[in-house]
Amino acid sequence: MKILLFQAIISISLFFGIWGLLTNVNWISIFQMERIQENTEEKPGELYWKLFNEYEGVIKNIEVLAPLDSILSKIYTSNNIDRTQIKVHIIESDEISTKNQNPGISEKDAMENRELN
Amino acid sequence: MISTGKFAYEPKDDEAEKASNSYVMSLAALTAGLPLPIINLIATFFFFIANRKGTYFVRWHCTQALLSQFSLLFINSFGFWWTTAILFDSEPITNRYFSYLITAFIFNLAEFITTIYTAVHTRKGIHVSWWFYGRLTDLLCHPKTEIPKKLF
């Protein structure tokens, strides 16, 4: 019985020992997982952009882009964001996203009040 | 890891064949063409049930084959659920995960090689006892032990 317990402990220790030793190897870089993940994330992004470009109106008017660019430049500078890492696309859409400041009135009334003002 | 020796008695040819088949059952997944180790366990279990009233040599080797499959079940199940969590629950892929998969693969491969070796030698009537599982089988399987009918 003692030998059996000893063998059981050795077997379990061997398993965890091998697992522990192999954990020290950087498998992520060996299998290039980060690059695969980036490529995988990039492809749906490109697909979505292709769809937006074909079916939604992309605004390329300099009168819209220029003021937006100066606003964004200030945001990038204040927040230490590398602007080369970000791409901004402006799309024409009928959907409006509003935040109701007054919880006592409905979203629709809040939108109408803003339009009148 | 493996030791060969003499059994309590000299097994007959049909006993050697049945005992060898218990190890062949644990390679069932290979014949099914599926990478599912659970099939090995199921096949080995049913073979064990079918031979629970067999001779000591047959029962002994069926028990050893079944016990080795059980330990692999824990290793493989943990790996399977970890993989499921990564695929469906946004669990991150880490070095620990890869190292676990490789460790599980090593143990499965070692068991596979040992099973083939044992199947070949048992067919010749040679008694093959595995590290840890052989002793555990000695504890559980006795010359006159039969599995009670009520359990199954």
TrEMBL record, chain A:
User: Biased composition, Basic and acidic residues: where in the chain?
Assistant: 106-117
What are the leading ranks of the lineage? Bacteria, Pseudomonadati, Bacteroidota, Bacteroidia, Marinilabiliales
Highest taxon of the lineage? Bacteria
Region (Disordered) location: 98-117
Q: What is this protein called?
A: Uncharacterized protein
Automatic annotation (TrEMBL), chain B:
UniProt entry keywords in alphabetical sequence: Membrane, Transmembrane, Transmembrane helix
Q: How does it sit in the membrane?
A: Multi-pass membrane protein
Task: Kindly list the places in or outside the cell where this protein is found, as annotated in its UniProt entry.
Answer: Membrane
Where do the TM regions start and end? 23-49, 70-88, 100-120
InterPro entries in the record, alphabetically?
MamF_MmsF
Q: What protein is this chain from?
A: DUF4870 domain-containing protein
